[in-house]
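Shift notes (night). Ran Peptidase MA superfamily protein while the centrifuge was going.
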Amino acid sequence: MTRITLIITTYIILFSNHVSAQNIYVDLCLQQNVELFKLREPLKLWLDFLHSEDERSGAVYWNQQEVEQFSDSTYFQLQDLDYFEMGDKIQTLQYGLTVLSITQQDSLYKITSKFGFAYNDSMSVTPFIFHVYAKTESVTNKLKLYNPFPINQRLHMTETRVGNITYIYPNNYKFNTSLAKKQNKEIKQIAKDFGFMLEDYRYFFTTNRSNYYEMKGFDFHFENIGHERPFGKADTTNNIAYTYGGGEYFPHELIHLFLNPEYPEAHPWFIEGFCTYFGGSTGQDLNWHKERLKNYLLEHPDFDLNQAPELLNMDEFTGYKYVLGGYFIELAYEKGGAQKVKEVLSFGNSKAEFYSALEKVLGIQKEDLNAFVRENL
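Came back to this:
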C-alpha cells in the first residue's frame, strides 16, 4: 500500500523548529485514575522510555530478550512509528504523544497511546493509535516493556501446520484445511518446476484489515482507510508471510519467500510478475488484472506504456508492475517454460536491464512496447 506521508513529512521537517522537542502528555481520564487502579509503575515506565534521548538510550526500559534478539536500537518493532523516516521512533513520538489508557489483565499491562500533532490552525494529523505491553521480566524481576505482536499472537491467535507452512490465525476463525492443502500443493509444484529449495514458513493471516493492524499493535493506522481488499506482505528475512482478507490461500506472498532470495538482483517488475502469474495479486488472478488493464487502455488511447518501469498503480486494485510484470512472465513461460522465465529473472534490476530482458528473451523492443501490449494483451 502506498504511503501518503511525503507532504506531511516535508512540512514537519521544514517548519517544526518552533515545536517543543517533547510533547508528551497523559490523558486526564487516565491521570485521574492512576492511583485508584495502581497504575503508577507502568505509566512511569512508559513515560521514562518516551523521554529517553533516543531508542538506544531507551533500551534500559525494554525487556532483555527482545533487545538481544534484535539490537539495542531496533528492539522496538513497530516500524511504522518512524513516521518522518528519522530513523528513531522515540524522537518521532516526542513530536506529539498522548497516553490514553492502561488496562491490566493479571500481571500484564496494555498501554495505549495516540501519536498526533497539529498540521495547521484548523487541521490535525493522527497517524496512529497503538499499544505496547509491560510485565515483570523474569531475568531482572523488574517491570519492562514488550512489543505487542508476539503477545497478541499468544493471546488471540492459534496455529495449524499444513506441509511446511505454519498458519497463524485468530482463535475464533474456522480453519479451512482444504484451502491450506491447495496452497501447499501449488507452492510445492512451483518449487519443483523451478528447482527452488523450500524451507519452513509461517503464514500469518486475519479476516480483515482492522484486525491485522490490531494484532500488529495498531488500534488505529492511517492506512486503514478506504476500500478494503486482500493484502499481503512478505518478510523474506524471517520466512513469514503476512496477509489479510485472503484466508488460507494467498500464495503470492509465500512465493516471495523463496523467489526473492534466489534472485536478489532481478528487476522488481519480474519478481512481482512471477508472484502474480503463479499466485495472483490482491486476491485475484492475473487474467482478472489483464482484463482490467485491457479495458483501461481502450478507454485511454493516449496512455503510453513505453516508460513502463516508471508506472505505479492503475488504481487501488491493479498495479502496473503486477499486471504487466505478470504478463511478461506469462509470455516467457509460454515461449520456453521455466527456463525462459529464469532467463528473464537473471537480468539485473536497472531500467536498462529491464528493457534488455524484454528485447533479448521476449523480442520486444523498447520503442514498440506500448504498441505490443495494446495489440497482444
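The first helix runs from residue 6 to 15. The CA atoms of residues 11 and 119 lie 8 Å apart.
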